[in-house]
Structure formats: structure tokens, C-alpha cells
Amino acid sequence: MSPCPDADNPGRVSPVVLARGLSTEDVGMSQNQRAYGTRADEVHPFFRAKREWSRVKDRIVGSYIACYLKTVQHRGRPIIIVDAFAGPGSFGDGSEGSPLIVCGAIGKAPKRGVGIACLFSDSHPAHRAALEERLSDYVKQGIAGKPLSDFSEALSCALQVGKGATLFFYLDPYGIKDLDFDTVKQIYERDTSQSTEVLINFNFKTFMRMSGNWSYTDSADDVARKVKESKIETVNSVMGGDYWIELVTNPRLDKTQREDAVVGAYMDRVRAFFQYTYAIPVKEMDDGAGVPSDDLAKYHLIFGTRSARAVLYMNDVANIALEPYFNQFKDGLLFSMTPRRYEPTSMEDVKSAILRVVNGRAMTRPQIYEAIVPGFFLQYRSKDYRAMIDGLVFKENRLFADPRTVKRKNKLNNETLLSTKPWPGGGGR
Ligand SMILES: C[S@@+](CC[C@H](N)C(=O)[O-])C[C@H]1O[C@@H](n2cnc3c(N)ncnc32)[C@H](O)[C@@H]1O
Fold first, then answer.
1. How, if at all, do strands 166-171 and 276-282 pair?
2. Whole-number Å distance between alpha carbons of 321 and 58
3. Domain final position from 327, 360, 395
4. Do 370 and 232 share a structural domain?
5. Per-residue pLDDT for 37 more than 80?
6. Is 417 in a helix, a strand, or coil?
């Protein structure tokens, strides 16, 4: 029986046999590990209780998949969501893991006759067995199949059965060693006429540990010495080259600039394949008294897509999920203490950018969003852009609405054409 969804009909997953009654030999576990279950003392330490930053990640994944499924169905192609580092499906505190979040979003998505399936894999046999059991309802509904044995199997399966399908890959390993660049690149190199998106958990702190265990406060010389003494082959294979060495040993960069430089250079590698590539920094809240300090991210979610529309969705989803973190630099403080690297561009400058894209070509609001938001990712939400456009039209007279496309007085809609020049007979607005 193929572990993959039906090759001729990727929207349907093959029937699976549930893992109940698997012997310890079957799953390669010790007697103790066989007790793998749902209680905190029965699971891997990572899965004992869900930490706040994992919740932020889940909000991003769950909300994005919900938006994604509403729109990609219009392509009329089967959709496969691959969660290749799936985990056991739930945490010791009862919280749902990513596979259940993804399946839940599929269950709630409006169905438009397009097959939607998920592929899960995990290299830990006990995680696979636990996951299989927790997915049983979704397996019966044909949404999920039996979890595959590891990332490489899930990848080849998805690429093989999903040739004409819309694919979304969520890669959430513990660290970075499983993210071999050439392996992941197979996702990036898919036929660009198909829709492909990736969301990768890139852990900069693991990167620091693996590249010499240098610390946040080490000088460039110390970092250089530690990098030299360490085995960097694995890091090079993950990063897709050794370009990172000159960044982490650059004496002109401070600790957060090093983080930005390495993550930025890694994104450039991904951007060679995906026009839109962003890093979403998932941070730990500072629970100390006083003004919070800007620390390294717990991890960065690297998002790659070729769709400007997808950027709009992810922009809103990530902005909402990160809001509590960024609010702590403003709420209750006399002045905003937002770290400079996260300071948004002023609204005045965003409005000037809007006027520049509209200049010479009338555009609708959605067209403006798609042209503008990718340049200001994570800084503002759709509602803010809508307010800025309203301001340009109704308060500042710098944008003009084609009266033939306005349905209600003093109200723009998504079909309203906007121009930097007044429309004949338009009365200015
Ligand atoms: C961070 S956890 C995933 C958590 C999960 N996304 C969630 O939110 O519930 C990483 C998982 O990857 C699994 N893993 C490690 N190496 C793997 C590999 N090469 N292929 C597939 N899974 C792997 C681990 O067993 C672990 O369950």
C-alpha cells in the first residue's frame, strides 16, 4: 500500500490501517516509550506543555492555513499541506499540535469541490504512533493519511503525488540540522506554474550553537575562533554555503545586527526561488519589570511564496500574532521604545509610496495592497492601509475615486478605481 495520497487523485488519501496493536518492534520503541501518551510525564520534554512562543507559531500556522484554503481553492487544483516534522499531535497539557491545527482548519474551510489532503511525517516512531491515533477521525474523513517516516519520505511523496497540485510545506524541526539546503531546495525548484509555499522554522540560537557555540555577547574575534574550532559542514549544508562566516565574524556588527545579517542572507538564498520571502521573528515576552529589551528571536518563521495575495494574508496573520510582543514596547510607556529594527515606516512615507504606484495608472484598492504591502511586510495591517487610502481620498485630496465605480457616497469599495488625477466630472472624489 502506498503511503502517499492516491497518485491519480491527490485529493483523496489512500485508506490507512490504524496503528492500534502495533508491537514495540514495529515502532522500534522501548517498553517505556510504548507508554507514550498524552500526559506530561509520558511525552518528550518538548511536548510536555506548550510554551507561549509555540502558541504564537500555532496562531500563525492555523490562521494562515485558514486564509490560504479560502483562496487557493480557486486554482481548481488539489491541495496538499505537508507538515513534515509533525510531532505526536498533542502536548502533555492537552494543547493541540500542528497536525490537529492544520486538520481543524481544513475541516472548517469552505469546500469548493477541490480535494484537500495533508501529509504528515515524524522520524520518532512513538510520535508517529501517537499521531496516527490522534488523527484517526481525519483519516476516516480522507483528510489525512498514515504519518510517513521522515521529512525526506514526505518530501518525495508530496513532489511525486502532488505534481499538479497546490502544495504548502510546513517545516518545524527541533533545530536546523534537518533543514539541509539542497534537500529543501527541491521544494523551491518545483515547476513555477504550480502554487508552492513554504513556512520554515529557522532557529538562530541553534545556528549559534552549531557554528561554534558562540554567545550573544562574544566579540567578533571570539566568534571567529569558536567557528574555526567547530565542525561547520552541517551548518554549511543547512545554510547552502559558508557565506554566513563573514557575517558572524564581522566586528562592525553587534549582536542583533549579526542575527539580522545571517537571517537576511539565508532569506536571500530562498528569495532566489520565491519572489516574496520574509522572516517572522517569534520572540519571548519580557516578563521583567521596566522597559523590555530587544532579544534574539526564539526562532524565525521563514515564509516563501510567489503570490502577492499570500503576502497580504500572512502580513495580517503575523502582525496580529506578534502584536502583544511589540505592544510591550509602547503600552504604558511615555514614549515608544520599539527597537529600531522593528520601527515601522511612517504612515506619511507609506502614503507617498501608494501615490507613487498609483501615479499614471488607476488602480483598485486590492491592486494597491498587492503592490504596497510586500514592501512594508509586518508593519501595518489591511485595516491600516484601508484607512490610509481613505485619508488620501477623503481628507487630503491626493487620490481621486472614479465616480462610475463608487456605489455609496463617501465610501470606497474594492472595485473603485483610484487615480492621482481628478476624474472628468468626478467632483474631486
Ligand atoms: C518541534 S517538533 C514539531 C512540533 C509540531 N510542529 C507541533 O507544533 O506540534 C519537531 C518534530 O520533528 C521530529 N523529527 C526530527 N527529525 C525529523 C526528520 N528528519 N523527519 C521528520 N520528523 C523529524 C521530532 O520527532 C519532533 O516530533
1. unpaired
2. 9
3. 327
4. no
5. no
6. coil
How far does the centroid of ligand 1 lie from the alpha carbon of residue 88, in Å?
A: 8
Nearby residues of 28 by Cβ (< 8 Å), 6 or more positions away: 125
Q: Which of 85, 91, 95, 135 to mutate to test the pocket of ligand 1 (most atoms within 8 A of CB)?
A: 85
CA 61 to chain centroid, in Å, comes to 6
Please write the tens of the pLDDT for every residue from 247-281.
999 999 988 899 999 999 999 999 999 999 999 99
CB of 121 within 6 A of ligand 1: the answer is yes
* 298/395 same-domain check: no
Q: For 292-345, how does the pLDDT look when each residue is reduced to its tens digit (9 = 90+)? A: 777 788 899 999 999 999 999 999 999 999 988 888 777 776 777 888 888 899
User: C-alpha cell of 62?
Assistant: 492555523
Over residues 8-28, the mean pLDDT reads 34
- Of 301, 327, 353, the one marking the end of a domain is 327
What one-character DSSP code corresponds to residue 7?
A: T
Question: Among 122, 168, 172, 203, which is best to mutate for testing ligand 1, by the most ligand atoms less than 8 A from CB?
Answer: 122
Q: Which three cell numbers stand for residue 105?
A: 482548519
- Which residue minimizes the CA distance to atom 26 of ligand 1? 87
User: Which of 243, 244, 261 lies closest to 252 in space, CA to CA?
Assistant: 261
Ligand 1 pocket, residue 298 CB under 6 Å: no
Q: What whole-number distance in Å separates Cα of residue 266 and Cα of residue 270?
A: 7
Do 307 and 159 belong to one domain? yes
Residue 56 in contact with ligand 1 by CB distance below 6 A: no
* Residue 282 Cα distances to 40, 68, 172, 301, angstroms: 24, 21, 13, 7
Average pLDDT over residues 119-141: 94
Domain containing 31: what range?
A: 24-327
Q: What is the model's pTM?
A: 0.90
Taking the alpha carbons of 366, 370, 376, 380 in that order, is the dihedral positive or negative? positive
| pLDDT tens-place string over residues 194-236 | 999 999 999 999 999 999 998 888 888 999 999 998 889 999 9
Q: Are 89 and 101 in contact (CB under 8 A)?
A: no
Give the count of domains, the chain. Answer: 2
Edge-to-edge strands, sheet with 276-282: 116-120, 79-83, 166-171, 196-202, 299-305, 276-282
